[in-house]
Amino acid sequence: MRFTKDMSIFEALSADDEARAVFESHGMACCLCIGAQSETIEAGAILHQVDPDTVVAELNQLSGDQS
User: Fold this and answer.
1) Bridge partners of 33?
2) CA torsion sign, 26 to 31 to 22 to 44?
3) Which of 21, 32, 47, 60 has the most CB atoms around its CB within 10 Å?
4) What is the number of alpha carbons within 13 Å of residue 27 lying toward its C-beta?
5) What global pTM score does this model have?
6) Which long-range contacts does 27-31 make (Cβ < 8 Å, 24+ apart)?
7) Domain ranges of the chain
8) What does the pLDDT read at residue 37?
9) CB distance 54 to 23 below 8 Å
């Protein structure tokens, strides 16, 4: 699976069990947030003052996608 900035946080958490650790490593406790179902990775990252591209790149490393 390829993660993108416009996918919901919930979708990312559902796609890979290790996604939670990526979010938490950036101070994003998304699995506990009610907004995770509709909020995008980009919006959540910006809210937590994290670079969305960095988060997406780390998520894609989970799936073996280096692009």
Assistant:
1) none
2) negative
3) 60
4) 8
5) 0.85
6) 28/55
7) 9-62
8) 76
9) no
List C-alpha distances in Å: 52 to 26, 56, 65: 10, 6, 16
- Please tell me the CATH superfamily of domain 9-62, with its number: SP0561-like (1.10.3910.10)
Three-class SS state of 1: coil
In angstroms, what CA-CA distances link 12 with 20, 28?
A: 9, 13
Q: Look at the block and give the residue holding tokens 């490593």.
A: 25
Which distant-in-sequence residues (6+ apart) come within 8 Å of 52 by Cβ?
5, 41, 42, 45, 46
| Interatomic CA distance for residues 39 and 48, integer angstroms | 12
Q: At residue 63, does pLDDT exceed 90?
A: no
